[in-house]
User: Fold this.
Amino acid sequence: MTRERVIDFLPAIYRPFLPDVFDRPMREERHATCAACSMCPPPEPDFPADAYFNPSTKCCTFHPALPNYSVGGLLADTSTEGAEGRRRVLATIAAGVGVTPAGLLPPARVLLLQRHGKAAFGRAERLVCPYLDREHGACTVWAQREAECATWFCKHNQGVDGRAFWKQVRDYLVEVHVALGTWVMRELGIDPDRIAEGFGPHLDALDARDLDDRPPAAADHARMWGEWTGREIAFYEAAYDMVRTLDRDRFTSLMGVAHAVTVDRIAKRHDAITDPVLPDPLLRNPLLRVDRAADGAYVLTAVDEGEATRLRSEIYPLLDLFDGRRRTTDVRARVIAETGYRVSDSFLQALYHHRILIGT
Assistant:
């Protein structure tokens, strides 16, 4: 399916009820190419090996927390395409680790590794997602992917501003997961005190069960699940049935009064990538990391901002003309006079989006 709107990037269950901002146009992140991963080492790499992702894991070194209704959606999918995801979810439920009324949560040990192993993202075999079909390089739960997996891209057309947009969408979806998951638990009779306690592990006080990836004691499991003990699959299926029949009015009421503010923040960040307003004057970012590629091109990365940008060697010196004092029109005129190059709006926008140029 061609993805042309923000909503097209998200699981289908959300289409009937997410707000209008998700109908705004959105282009594919053309440099985030999963089939030919741009983060994996090329035949002639420009950087050391540890600068690239592991080709056997790529970015799938993250253990998602699947909301209860998403688990139900995977269980309800009896198609050939959904068979492997359903099998893996059933195996997870049978194993009993992280099986909660809120959804299927990562084991405590994995959460600890993820928290303290951020530099290993995309590289460590120990962090590979249990729902990744490594033989085919495919996600087996993609139809019901959670917030992080739905919105994470290794590269963004609009650089820093693109990443800020998708991060805002991710944060919003996390709020949706929590609100809908909590609504489901309350409606289906999970004990309110148990809901209030939360279901994630306490990472500052892990016990032997946590470290050995063992399920909770039978009494703890029964306290968590109440009357649904032994009927966990039926609970997840009921959760899915509740959420998939939501309409927008009911969804909006469930999300509460702060919902409109969060939606406004998404709209603001969408405006920043579709109708950017550039500072004037512009300044070459003094915190640029500058590397040279094998072909002589300059590879620029704004420190703490992330993504690398390549510039031809004859273009790179022009950045120094943006000194934070000259107006952009004056810089453009000087570039034409000295080099014959025309500095287009789209080129300036790209340099600003990637924070190669910044405001003063």
User: Anything to note?
Assistant: The mean pLDDT is 95. Strands lie at 66-67, 99-100, 103-104, 132-133, 138-139, 282-284, 288-292, 298-302, 308-311, 357-359.
